[in-house]
Here is the input.
Amino acid sequence: MRISTRFLAAASLAALSLFAGSAMADGEKYVIGTDSTYPPFEFVDASGEIKGFDIDIAKALCAEMKAECSFVSADWDGIIPALKAKKFDMIVSSMSITPERSKLVDFTNKYYNTPPAIAVPKDSTITDVAGLKGKTIGAQTSTTHSNYAEKHLPDTELKLYPTADEYKLDISNGRIDAVIDDVVVLSEWVKSDAGSCCKILTPLKVDPEINGAGAGIAIRQGDPLKDKLNAAIAAIRTSGKYKEIQDKYFDFDVYGE
Here is the structure.
């Protein structure tokens, strides 16, 4: 969901702010903001290129709209203010469509929808959600997952982190008892060498008021780009391009119901 890229965000945004402003005038060039530390949805590879499911979806949407798009990394905590300040033209970064965020930005239709989950160390004695009582659970700040823990896991001690990388480090070193995040993110992590410490305890039931209606693309309120993006999302779903991208990353239907 983040250490190395967040320190580059301010410089990157400043460098691209003028380009983002002109993009809106052209209508065919867009700058896309993303918190590029959230694999497999967005991450920076060894060559410094931003990649991932969200990025491939965004590229497919831009191709469908016959638009030229570029990407910029942004700190998650400041990503909506940066959009509103016209630092970029849209956010494609696994952002859940929630009533609270919808007061600040407009959203497209969803482009995927997956539930939250809990991960614990492999040697943990916790066997179910009830076993989390009195335990310390980590989450990234300003996310639906931290909000979910506050509401549904009130008997735990919630520890918040600026990035997912930091909570992963703490649980791997035994400093916290569990973590909460998207089931896909946690599943991919526990299958990796970096996540070999841990296992999925359980997926969690979606709370529509917190988790929203899935992940959507955020744009400034009233921006006609919303209609173009919705048409492009529908088009790549129909053409099979969406499934092609999905199958590159997942072995299940990430779009959801």
User: Anything to note?
Assistant: The chain is about 40% helix and 20% strand.
